Automatic annotation (TrEMBL):
Family annotation (Pfam families): F_bP_aldolase (PF01116)
This protein's name: Aldolase
Coiled-coil ranges per UniProt: none
InterPro entries, A to Z: Aldolase_TIM, Class_II_FBP_aldolase, FBA_II
Domain of life: Bacteria
Example GO biological process: carbohydrate metabolic process
Example of a GO MF term: aldehyde-lyase activity
């Protein structure tokens, strides 16, 4: 089978329905694997980093729209720059509003890697497998089962890297840090134990936890220790967490101003350095993880490797690039915005300008107009993809992951 035949297979699978869709997606994934595509856990690399920081920060990239095109661009650049240390991820919430379940995401991303003849393993990550606070308070067991079901679905699809996020349950009304973090570390340990019970033979899933919901107050060493001590008491298994997500001043999507622009955010790099050092030295993890980084000024990206940050998550910046690119037809852009204003007006918060509302909800346009995004003509896509490739290259170079393919291929053998 020619690699170019994957293009039609992917498209037909994504836009099929019901049982036919699932069968077609499985066929795409199997064809990609037959052509050399390999889904893997980054766990062995993170164990190496836990022993000695290697001087680079792993980018974890969320793809919300035009997934096959964007993933092909990503792997095209990764192959050219010999980048092996890169994760492609999707969050629980994104699966809903982008209409991409784990099997679809896995099939599309793996096919994109094979299409571009990317020679390394592909690391798929479940980002923010997050407990919904309101749902959990209403019925803990129901919410737990929803998370367990998502974990099963993701593992079956080939997501061997998972971030469990129960930081939404932290109770700041409690007196001690241990009691504040208790709902977080107990659920994280319970779900981590569950993941270990389902692991495919020969694979250790790379697991992350989170101590502070992104957008809240900056995390502290005391909070990190309170969480980890509690987690280690509750966890039943040998391999625990490899990394810990912390809050250092960012927010998901950035802080949008009334004119629709994004405010400049001050990241506390000293806190990030301190927490990464504690994670490695005291708990044998690879380090701390920075969320909400894609809307930061690119001139700051080189600082993440300098402070020992093991991983950063990048999502909204790529979304903004797609929506704001001059090559995107204005008629198409306004069609999406008009739909959002009509059908999602209930999400328009008091005090928001129209620009703030559009910025906050346009992520949902990727799912609602999914086929229209995929069907954009090549003359529209080409300049957008070119800009994406240039952006990927700058980020890879700043995070110092160029030339990591040999290291990754040597460490990741399963």
């Amino acid at each position: 089978m020619e690699r170019s035949q994957l293009d039609a297979m992917v498209y037909e699978a994504v836009f099929s329905e019901g049982e036919e869709k699932e069968a077609r997606l499985r066929e795409v994934r199997e064809k990609a694997q037959a052509l050399g595509g390999r889904l893997a856990s980054i766990y062995p690399l993170y164990r190496e980093i836990a022993r000695e920081f290697r001087g680079f920060t792993v980018p974890a990239i969320n793809i919300r729209g035009m997934t096959y095109d964007v993933a092909r661009a990503l792997f095209r650049v990764a192959r050219r720059l010999s980048v092996g240390a890169v994760l492609v991820e999707i969050a629980r919430s994104e699966m809903g509003y982008t209409r991409q379940r784990p099997l679809e995401y896995a099939a599309v991303v793996l096919a994109a890697a094979v299409r571009e003849e990317f020679p390394g393993p592909v690391f798929l990550q479940g980002d923010h497998f997050q407990a919904n606070r309101k749902a959990y308070q209403a019925s803990p067991q129901t919410e737990k089962e929803a998370l367990r079901q998502l974990i099963r679905e993701a593992l079956e699809a080939g997501f061997y890297n998972l971030d469990i996020d129960a930081s939404t349950l932290v109770d700041l009304s409690r007196e001690t840090l241990s009691e504040q973090q208790r709902p977080n570390y107990e659920l994280t340990a319970e779900l981590a134990t569950y993941v270990r019970s389902l692991e495919p033979e020969g694979i250790t899933v790379n697991l992350g936890g989170e101590i502070g919901e992104i957008g809240g107050h900056n995390s502290t060493p005391e909070e990190l220790r309170a969480f980890m001590e509690g987690f280690n008491r509750c966890f039943r298994g040998e391999a625990g967490l490899s990394k810990i997500s912390v809050q250092t001043g960012s927010s998901h999507g950035g802080v949008v101003l009334p004119d629709g622009s994004v405010a400049r955010v001050q990241i506390d790099f000293d806190t990030l350095r301190t927490l990464s050092e504690i994670a490695r030295r005291e708990y044998g993890m690879a380090g701390a993880v920075q969320h909400g980084a894609s809307t930061l000024p690119e001139e700051l990206f080189h600082l993440f490797p300098e402070v020992g940050c093991v991983e950063i998550h990048l999502a909204t910046g790529f979304q903004n690039l797609l929506y704001d690119h001059p090559a995107l037809p204005e008629e198409f852009r306004q069609k999406i915005y008009a739909y959002l204003k009509e059908h999602l007006r209930h999400e328009w918060k008091e005090g928001w300008t129209e620009a703030q509302f559009i910025y906050k909800v346009r992520k949902k346009g990727f799912g609602i107009f999914k086929k229209e995004w995929w069907d954009l003509p090549q003359e529209v896509k080409a300049p957008i993809i070119q800009t994406l490739e240039e952006t990927f290259e700058r980020i890879f170079r700043a995070l110092k992951v160029t030339g990591t393919l040999e290291l990754v291929s040597g460490v990741i053998r399963s």
